[in-house]
């Protein structure tokens, strides 16, 4: 069957032929029959929907549990970064995130989300690190890496915003592509490649395209080429054209690369 899952909303929609059911994180074994006409109401405000094809009920319950845990972890990290909240609450959030880090998939998800956008102006990274000290070395390490990578994150984020709209059919397709790039961890992969001396733009391009092609996204190679070209040029301090059909010749590494540190 096909299943649509929202970790933020804590439910999954199960499509079995003409029948539609929902299951919920608090009691995933209980199926609630739904009318297809209620989909619009059920999905109102949901922006993290993930679709799975050809999975069974047990797999659907497992994916719902993981998606819900990811949403919880992200909510806790946002608490950590909120300077308006009490210190003891932020410390407790760090402890709870640490418990969720036992699942490496959750840690990878948090990295994918955080690295997809520069730290907002009102984000309190110093306070978050202070709250995590002694409470969770793993969370503290994540926050320190996030701070270190801010210059590269900004470059990658700005390059994504600059991808021309005409490479997407519409705004919905652009948003869906970005959501998949976040979910597949493309932003931190891109950042790591940029700050690592000797990284290959060709290898990065193949990695990015390979992780999106499975989603049957139209023109995903062109999108990735455009996304990669300018940041890689900035990495070496060289200008380049966008949408180059010969990426390698335009952004090849110089003989003496600059330091990889921001």
Describe the structure.
The chain has 262 residues and is an alpha+beta fold. The chain folds into two domains: 2-148, no CATH class; 151-250. 54% of the residues lie in helices and 11% in strands. It has helices spanning 39-42, 57-80, 87-100, 104-114, 125-132, 137-148, 150-161, 171-183, 186-195, 201-213, 220-236, 247-250, and strands spanning 2-6, 11-16, 19-24, 27-34, 50-52. The chain has a five-stranded antiparallel beta sheet with strand order 4-3-2-1-5, covered by helices on one side. Helix 2 packs across helix 4 (104-114) and helix 3 (87-100) crosses helix 5. The chain is globular and about 55 Å long. Mean pLDDT is 87; it is low at 243-262.
Short description:
This protein has helices at 39-42, 57-80, 87-100, 104-114, 125-132, 137-148, 150-161, 171-183, 186-195, 201-213, 220-236, 247-250, and strands at residues 2-6, 11-16, 19-24, 27-34, 50-52. By secondary structure, it is an alpha+beta fold. The radius of gyration is 20 Å and the shape is globular.
- Report strand order across the widest sheet: 4-3-2-1-5
How many domains comprise the coordinates?
2
Q: Give the terminus-to-terminus CA distance.
A: 47 Å
Percent helix, as a range, is 40-55%
- Catalogue the unreliable spans: 243-262
The major beta sheet can be summarized as: 5 strands, antiparallel
> What general form does the structure show?
globular
**Share of residues in strands:** 5-15%
Radius of gyration: 20 Å
Specify the number of helices: 12
């Amino acid at each position: 069957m096909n299943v649509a899952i929202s970790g933020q909303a804590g439910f999954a929609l199960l499509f079995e032929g003409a029948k539609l059911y929902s299951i919920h994180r608090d009691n995933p074994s209980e199926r609630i029959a739904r009318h297809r006409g209620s989909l619009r109401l059920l999905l109102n405000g949901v922006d993290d929907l993930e679709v799975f094809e050809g999975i069974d009920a047990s797999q659907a319950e497992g994916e719902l549990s993981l998606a819900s845990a990811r949403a919880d972890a992200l909510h806790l990290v946002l608490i950590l970064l909120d300077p308006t909240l009490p210190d003891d609450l932020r410390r407790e959030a760090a402890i709870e995130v640490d418990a969720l880090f036992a699942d490496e998939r959750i840690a990878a998800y948090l990295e994918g989300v955080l690295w997809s956008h520069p730290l907002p102006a009102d984000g309190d990274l110093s306070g978050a690190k202070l709250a995590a000290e002694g409470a969770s070395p793993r969370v503290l390490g994540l926050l320190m890496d996030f701070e270190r990578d801010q210059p590269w994150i900004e470059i990658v984020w700005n390059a994504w915003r600059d991808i021309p709209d005409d490479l997407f059919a519409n705004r919905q397709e652009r948003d869906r592509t970005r959501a998949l790039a976040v979910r597949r961890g493309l932003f931190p992969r891109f950042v790591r490649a940029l700050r690592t001396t000797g990284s290959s733009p060709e290898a990065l391009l193949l990695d990015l395209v390979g992780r999106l092609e499975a989603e049957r996204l139209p023109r995903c190679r062109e999108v990735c080429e455009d996304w990669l070209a300018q940041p890689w040029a900035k990495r070496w301090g060289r200008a380049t054209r966008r949408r180059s059909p010969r990426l390698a010749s335009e952004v090849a590494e110089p003989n003496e690369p600059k330091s990889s540190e921001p």
